[in-house]
Amino acid sequence: MVDMRRGGTALGGSYLHEGDGLATGWHSHDLHQIEYAMAGVVEVRTASAHYLLPPQQAAWIPAGLEHRAVLDSAARTIAVLFDPELVPRPGDRARILAVPTLIREMMIYALRWPIARGSGDDVSDGFFRTLGHLVADALEHEAPLSLPTSADPVVAAAIAYTQDHLDGVSIGAVSRAAGVSERTLRRQFQVTLGMSWRHYLLQARLLRAMALLADPGLSVLEVSTSVGFESPSAFARAFAQHCGEKPSVYRRRIGGDPSATALPSPLSSPR
Q1: What is the pLDDT of residue 121?
Q2: Residue 263 lies in a domain
Q3: Total domain count for the chain?
Q4: Which of 33, 96, 172, 173 could covalently link to 61 via disulfide, CB atoms 3.0 to 4.6 Å apart?
């Protein structure tokens, strides 16, 4: 359990991450957390799921949930943490949220109040109470950006092999890596995860593609090839069905306008 307040008593606060990549160990907080990705890609893992946080989305991590995070070298994020009393109906699992403009701007404004400060005041407490209620409403609109995980050794091995070979994986190769027959693998996948291996593969490819599209150095063709689609047209169709927009449109949207995510300067506490 990580004490983000460092002994302080503030009801809410924030912190900014920008710089080198980061991979945390497994940990939890005594506070609820929402982390907004301004740039780069963040992956969050819990015991039950693997979540992808692309730019302009936010990860919700309730208090007490053990998790680990991996931030790529381009990641730039704002995290806001809340005392549990501030967020009604928080749920008990992580989620990825499409962040409305109001919540995004309030998270940027929240940088004026670091979570590790000694105590809160009437102004900051009121601010974080309001933001907490807005976040609670946003939790009703979860983005489909997660994959299930499993403690079953066969399924876990199959997941790991699939993730490592998205560019050209087959059910035969996965079953050999997991040490079972194709029939057994299909059955255990369905029973354990509630989806077929083929469906898991499609979801994994699309999630990886969403992360890669955040890299301006890769073309859409290179992204589709690297995650195993036979043609750009097949990739575009699958991506549009899953994400509601074409890969090129998604890329332009998450590229964003730098002025839209500009941070207040200086980052000083209000009077």
Answers
A1: 95
A2: no
A3: 2
A4: 33
Report how far residue 5's alpha carbon sits from residue 114's, in angstroms, rounded to the nearest whole number. Answer: 9
d(CA 60, CA 44): 10
Q: Give the CA count within 13 Å in the CB-facing half-sphere of 17.
A: 25
Does 265 reside within a domain?
Answer: no
What is the span of the domain harbouring residue 184? 148-255
Rounded to whole angstroms, the Cα distance separating 263 from 39 reads 13
Are 27 and 111 members of one domain?
yes
Residues 18 and 88 in one domain: yes
Q: State residue 19's pLDDT score.
A: 74
Q: What is the mean pLDDT of each run of 10 residues along the chain (271 residues)?
A: 91 90 91 90 86 84 94 87 91 86 94 95 96 91 79 93 93 95 94 93 90 85 94 93 85 56 42 29
SS3 231: coil
CA pair distance 152, 187, nearest whole angstrom:
13
Beta-bridge partner residues of 53? 42
Of 239, 264, 269, the C-alpha closest to 54 is 239
